[in-house]
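Q: I have 209 residues here and want to know how they pack in 3D. Can you give me a structure?
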Amino acid sequence: MTIQKLLDNNQAWAKKVAQEQPELFATLSKQQAPKYLWIGCSDSRVPANEIVDMLPGELFVHRNVANLVKHVDFNCQSVIQFAVDVLKVEHIIVCGHYGCGGVKVAMENTNAGISDYWLRSVKDIALRHRVELQDLPNQEARLSRMCEINVTEQVANLAHSKIVQTAWQKNQPLEIHGWIYGIHDGVIKNLHVSHKGLSDLDDIYQVEI
């Protein structure tokens, strides 16, 4: 497929949307008011809007390799701050996926170049959960479980951020969730690791704002 084909596809898509929903682009051009922030993996097989059947403007999206939420990643933290403080989103979803290539690389001794620096924290998570992972029957099962664990850890990182905790201290409606997507069947699994307020956190992680 050539680059021009992508531009042609865009023309056809824009025409189709304009016919089916004549007011959509006019509305989107004036403002965005999404209720959800999606933090997901950069994997091309996990298109955020499509897998939850949402239109443009309904989902604020940040993606990176292995759907990581790092306190020192100012790109991700800036997205979270804008979503929470400016857009006033009510839900933040960290969504990983089974078979994640980033998680797989982190669990192996593969030389992934500069990506190894980014994925170092995933190695640390795998090390902390090594006993549980080693008890699983095969590498595929270990990878699947590690993808779930990684989401849970990123949800915790999100809950520990000053941005989220400040919103909770102001009684701003905000919930954070951990999901995982099955590329093999297109179904999202709720990992039931949601946080809804400061009471969900251990004291050591609560910060005075």
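Q: Anything worth noting?
A: The chain has two domains: 1-31, 32-199. The radius of gyration is 19 Å.
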